[in-house]
């Protein structure tokens, strides 16, 4: 039970962002501005990156202003309330300047993303107070928080669509019986998912609220320094006795002077040699950390609807859901393997960029892309996105792990560079998507493609 609570402690960080994003394919059909919804959500998520600087700078300018024990519970409760409100207000719209906008959805999505972004600088300091095995379990829970929210939408389904022959009157008949005619045209009618969109947000709320009991548990656990004080004196006696035996067996020291001898070095005093990388190598590492997120977190999600919806809602649903699983699934191999070679990371980045270029080209061709009528359209539309996200998720993790083991600066700059890449990608794509200039949307039935 203790280890399960430690795992639940680290679960909320990615539940907010990952769980909200996988619901987007079910929202673009009902929320304005429909196909352009992905670009707006991407910008909202990047705006939430103001959270980490606020927390770190607030603690620096006013020490004691933000308690590391109090901030994580506030974030979790705030994220849980945002999820709960989304389950009831997700379809609420407001009219601004004569156009309908989903303001409530965007505001609540911002607060969810704020929990996602800020947890990286608030949860870890709290977890570091606990005993190391519990910290490891908390890290495992953080990895599961990106995988678990994607599982319910797989059962929820993409909803799908069907074509209906709808009649409408053109030039209604006048009083003398003249004029008026009826035309028939195909229109798209969207099918509901297996359970409601509000139900999906309620499941996210339940996931978020599994964390507060873990905070109460963590507050009652002995801290790392308390455990180390209990073990400190016996450990020193054992280490000193082994050092003395080793010195006696080796004979008198070579530089024994009359003024006394220096204390022998203990095994803990021998530090590993620090290996620093040159400017060119660090630049390459920084590019690997910055460029892939600009595609997977910024530019790519902004046009995902244009690239996938022409192949059907199932393709868009699978692309969003399976792509969200790429990051947690890539973490264990990257952690076990450590820092990879520069050639391998560069190769994966090149291949992933190629898939991204293909997805961008398909989005430009929307609503009549290549292979639209080829079977199976779901695999064609969603498969490229899964490969794109999977190949570009792995290199930054490898670069951060390998760089951190050799250069402290590479590890320190990893989070801000990753967030910078996602923000730049989202900002570059936003003017092209909102309002759409380069990309065009369309219905599944009303448009006749050659």
Characterization of the model:
- This protein has helices at 2-9, 12-21, 24-27, 37-47, 51-61, 71-89, 103-127, 132-147, 151-156, 197-208, 212-219, 224-250, 279-308, 313-324, 326-337, 342-365, 377-406, 408-412, 414-433; strands spanning 94-96, 99-101, 161-170, 181-190.
- It has 450 residues and is mainly α.
- It has three domains: 1-158 and 195-224, Growth Hormone, Chain: A (Up-down Bundle), CATH 1.20.1250; 159-192, no CATH class; 277-450, no CATH class.
- A two-stranded antiparallel sheet has the order 1-2.
- The longest helix is centred in the middle third of the chain and has 30 residues, at 279-308.
- It is globular, with a radius of gyration of 28 Å.
- It starts with a helix and ends in a 17-residue tail after the last helix.
- InterPro entries: Riboflavin_transptr (IPR009357).
- It catalyses: riboflavin(in) = riboflavin(out).
Give a brief description.
The chain is mostly helical and 450 residues long. Helix content is 64%, strand content 6%.
Question: What labels describe this entry?
Answer:
mainly alpha; Growth Hormone, Chain: A; 3 domains; two-stranded antiparallel ribbon; two-stranded antiparallel sheet; 19 helices; 4 strands
Largest sheet, spatial ordering of strands: 1-2
Average pLDDT, rounded to a whole number, is 70
- End-to-end Cα distance: 60 Å
Helix/strand structural class:
mainly alpha
Note poorly predicted spans.
222-275
What's the CATH architecture of the largest domain? Up-down Bundle
CATH topology of the largest domain: Growth Hormone, Chain: A
- Text of the CATH class of the largest domain: Mainly Alpha
Assigned CATH superfamily of the largest domain: MFS general substrate transporter like domains
Order of helices and strands: HHHHHHEEHHHEEHHHHHHHHHH
How many DSSP H or I helices? 19
Return Rg in Å: 28 Å
Percentage of residues assigned to helices: 55-70%
Q: Please report the total strand number as a whole number.
A: 4
Shape: globular
SS strand fraction: 5-15%
Tell me about the largest β-sheet.
2 strands, antiparallel
For the record, the count of structural domains works out to: 3
Keywords: Cell membrane, Glycoprotein, Membrane, Signal, Transmembrane, Transmembrane helix, Transport
Protein name: Riboflavin transporter
Region (Disordered): 249-270
Family: Belongs to the riboflavin transporter family.
């Amino acid at each position: 039970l203790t280890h399960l609570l430690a795992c639940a402690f680290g679960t909320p960080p990615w539940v907010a962002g990952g769980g909200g994003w996988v619901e987007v394919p079910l929202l673009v059909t009902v929320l304005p501005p429909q196909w352009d919804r992905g670009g707006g959500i991407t910008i909202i998520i990047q705006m939430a990156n103001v959270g980490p600087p606020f927390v770190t700078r607030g603690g620096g300018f006013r020490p004691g202003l933000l308690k590391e024990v109090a901030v994580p519970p506030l974030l979790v409760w705030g994220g849980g309330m945002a999820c709960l409100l989304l389950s009831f207000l997700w379809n609420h719209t407001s009219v601004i300047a004569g156009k309908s906008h989903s303001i409530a959805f965007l505001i609540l999505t911002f607060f969810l993303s704020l929990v996602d972004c800020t947890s990286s600088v608030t949860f870890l300091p709290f977890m570091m107070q606990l005993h190391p095995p519990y910290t490891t379990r908390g890290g495992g829970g953080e990895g599961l928080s990106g995988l678990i929210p994607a599982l319910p939408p797989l059962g929820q389904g993409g909803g799908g669509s069907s074509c209906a022959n709808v009649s409408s009157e053109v030039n209604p008949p006048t009083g003398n019986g003249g004029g008026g005619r009826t035309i028939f045209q195909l229109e798209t009618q969207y099918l509901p998912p297996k359970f409601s969109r509000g139900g999906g947000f309620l499941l996210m709320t339940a996931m978020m609220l599994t964390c507060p009991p873990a905070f109460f548990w963590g507050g009652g656990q002995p801290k790392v320094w308390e455990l180390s004080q209990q073990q400190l004196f016996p450990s020193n006696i054992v280490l000193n006795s082994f050092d003395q035996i080793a010195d006696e067996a080796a004979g008198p020291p070579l530089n024994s002077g009359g003024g006394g001898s220096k204390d022998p070095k203990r095994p803990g005093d021998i530090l590993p040699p620090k290996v620093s990388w040159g400017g060119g190598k660090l630049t390459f590492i920084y590019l690997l950390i910055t460029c892939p997120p600009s595609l997977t977190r910024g530019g790519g999600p902004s046009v995902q609807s244009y690239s996938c919806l022409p192949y059907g809602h199932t393709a868009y649903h699978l692309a969003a859901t399976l792509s969200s699983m790429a990051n947690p699934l890539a973490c264990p191999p990257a952690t076990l393997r450590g820092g990879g070679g520069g050639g391998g990371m560069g190769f994966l980045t090149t291949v992933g960029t190629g898939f991204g270029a293909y997805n961008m080209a398909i989005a430009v061709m929307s609503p009549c892309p290549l292979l639209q009528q080829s079977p199976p359209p779901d695999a064609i539309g969603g498969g490229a996105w899964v490969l794109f996200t999977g190949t570009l998720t792995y290199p930054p993790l490898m670069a951060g792990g390998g760089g951190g083991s050799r250069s402290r600066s590479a590890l320190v700059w990893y989070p801000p560079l990753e967030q910078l890449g996602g923000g730049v990608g989202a900002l570059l794509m936003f003017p092209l998507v909102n309002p759409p200039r380069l990309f065009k949307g369309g219905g599944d039935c009303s448009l006749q493609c050659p």
